[in-house]
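Hi R.,

As promised on Friday, here is the backbone we talked about, encoded as structure tokens. Could you run it through your design pipeline when you get a chance and send me back a sequence?
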């Protein structure tokens, strides 16, 4: 008769914290990218409107 194999048990709380940390880092980068995109869009809008209104050369 063979011995039953030992099954490795993973700690679900450790696994959940690692996944949560990866999601948090991904969310941070997405928010940061969105803020940069919004600032650059507003800057371009102000530039275009000032060119049309003041006819700067």
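Update: got your reply. Pasting your designed sequence below so it's all in one thread:
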């Amino acid at each position: 008769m063979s011995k039953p194999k030992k099954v490795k048990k993973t700690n679900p709380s450790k696994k959940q914290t690692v996944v949560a940390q990866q999601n948090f880092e991904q969310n941070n980068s997405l928010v940061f990218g969105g803020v940069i995109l919004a600032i650059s869009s507003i800057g371009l809008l102000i530039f275009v409107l000032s060119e049309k209104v003041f006819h700067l050369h």
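One thing I noticed while checking it: The chain has a mean pLDDT of 80.

Thanks again,
M.
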